[in-house]
Amino acid sequence: MGYDLDLAERLRERLAAEPGVREKRMFGGLAFLVDGHLAVSASGRGGLLVRCDAGDQDALQRDPRVGPFVMHGRPMTGWVHVDVDGSVGEADLDLWLDHGLAFARSLPPR
């Protein structure tokens, strides 16, 4: 399964005006990096990966569309996976993007 092209375009449109953002194909998906740090990605497994503060992870996962990001059978701290389809509104997408952007911007530039 490849990444969702419609989701990738929605991300691209919403992030176009953000300073320091560039896109890069990574891990079968399309990642959006801020100053060299991955913020969000249209996942190669489908859906959206969001980098977040570990302290926000439980609150984000209260949304039934959000779960842990699991890599090699292990949940990854500071990452969530969001089931995104065409019915997800811009406000929800913006919320997840805000988390990813805020976390990436909290890190020193690479």
TrEMBL record:
<feature type="domain" description="TfoX N-terminal">
    <location>
        <begin position="14"/>
        <end position="104"/>
    </location>
</feature>
<dbReference type="InterPro" id="IPR007076">
    <property type="entry name" value="TfoX_N"/>
</dbReference>
<protein>
    <recommendedName>
        <fullName>TfoX N-terminal domain-containing protein</fullName>
    </recommendedName>
</protein>
<dbReference type="Pfam" id="PF04993">
    <property type="entry name" value="TfoX_N"/>
</dbReference>
